[in-house]
């Protein structure tokens, strides 16, 4: 993965659980099902003769184009999940993500205000959670989705302790 331009040298990235692909697929399926149904309503109305506009070709093209884009996003999901990583250093936490638009975020422990863990209905049966870091600046807030629940709890305690230690030293 050629990200040397934005990655600090010598970092061993920890990856999120591969089970997170399942969470992303469930989100993808639900979102696209709703979108295709809504975008197909004009087609149904045109075929039933209730509408004369839009033309038939447009009523077919809009959901078809959406479906093509949805399939393209589906193909990218496993790669997007593999791109998410984090690394704990002595003074900060690094969080990275992205394929086309890569981002590496550095969150200093001393700027952390609180660490939050969230578990959604799809994550819960898979034993996953999302760790959210809230800092003094909204621009340095970060989240690490797809963590195993045990790792999320460990990381929450570790980061909270490091954040308190850094704040006490100020």
UniProtKB/TrEMBL annotation:
Superkingdom assignment: Bacteria
YdbS-like PH domain ranges (all copies): 82-159
Membrane-traversing stretches: 29-50, 56-76
Pfam families for this protein: bPH_2
Keywords carried by this UniProt record: Membrane, Transmembrane, Transmembrane helix
Keyword Nucleotide-binding attributed: no
InterPro entries: YdbS-like_PH (IPR005182)
Keyword Protein transport: no
Coiled-coil residue spans: none
Protein name: YdbS-like PH domain-containing protein
Species this chain originates from: Arthrobacter humicola
Taxonomic path: Bacteria, Bacillati, Actinomycetota, Actinomycetes, Micrococcales
């Amino acid at each position: 993965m050629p990200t040397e331009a934005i990655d600090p040298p010598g970092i061993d990235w920890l990856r999120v659980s591969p089970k997170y692909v399942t969470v992303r697929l469930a989100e993808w399926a639900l979102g696209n099902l709703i979108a295709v149904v809504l975008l197909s309503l004009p087609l149904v109305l045109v075929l039933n003769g209730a509408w004369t506009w839009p033309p038939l070709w447009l009523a077919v093209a809009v959901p078809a184009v959406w479906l093509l884009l949805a399939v393209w996003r589906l193909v990218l999901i496993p790669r997007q999940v593999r791109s998410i990583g984090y690394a704990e250093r002595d003074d900060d936490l690094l969080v990275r993500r992205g394929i086309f638009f890569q981002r590496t975020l550095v969150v200093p422990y001393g700027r952390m205000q609180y660490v939050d863990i969230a578990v959604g209905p799809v994550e819960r049966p898979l034993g996953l959670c999302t760790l959210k870091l809230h800092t003094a600046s909204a621009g340095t807030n970060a989240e690490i989705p797809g963590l195993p629940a045990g790792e999320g709890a460990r990381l929450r305690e570790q980061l909270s302790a490091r954040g308190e230690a850094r704040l006490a030293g100020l």
